[in-house]
Write a structure and sequence with these properties.
1 helix, single chain, mainly alpha
């Protein structure tokens, strides 16, 4: 039971990190596009 909860926490942490990386990348791309215009 504890191992299942552990894997769920790991998966949620990975998803949160990936989503935060995506939003960070999109923000960087947006800034780059604004600077190019």
């Amino acid at each position: 039971m504890d191992t299942i909860l552990f894997f769920m926490d790991v998966r949620v942490g990975i998803e949160l990190r990936m989503s935060s990386d995506k939003s960070h990348l999109s923000a960087k791309n947006r800034n780059r596009l604004l600077n190019e215009e």
